[in-house]
Amino acid sequence: LFLYSLAVLPFLVLIGIFNSWNSFIGILIRGLASVQALFLLIRTTGFHTLCKGMQRLGVPTMLVVQLWFVYRYLFVWLQEALSMDRARRARSYGHRAYPLSQWGIFVGELLIRTLNRSEHLHRAMIARGFNGQFSLPYSLRWEARNTCYLLCWSFFFLCLRFLPFILNQL
Prior knowledge:
The longest helix has 31 residues. By secondary structure, the chain is mainly alpha-helical. It starts with a helix and ends with a helix.
């Protein structure tokens, strides 16, 4: 999870660079911990179940459906990019880097291929009866593990919040 969360490190640096050193370190730690908590929640719960839970909590349905589509089509985009990269490497005779002139062609072709594949997926969803609502084969209930998850992460974030105050007292 830590390696995946490093993807947001440049954004956290841009946010925290104009603060004092203590605030900067705090922003980095809290930001990385928040992203790790989100990844852990998605891994343990599943994104589809998480979207259904957000819908039950009152988050607007349109926002939940948009999040679900972004999550779903991100994998479509990644599969198409990997497929195109594999094809380019097979034809490149050992050249690793893209020439600058090829980037526009690659990105344009990736966009077209992803949109076509997304349209096919959308048609398949409509053919299977998707009407903008999520349906899970089971009902969502609050369980003891949900309480444990909530308490553990709340305790962790409270410790991070008050750690500077505790260290200043020592």
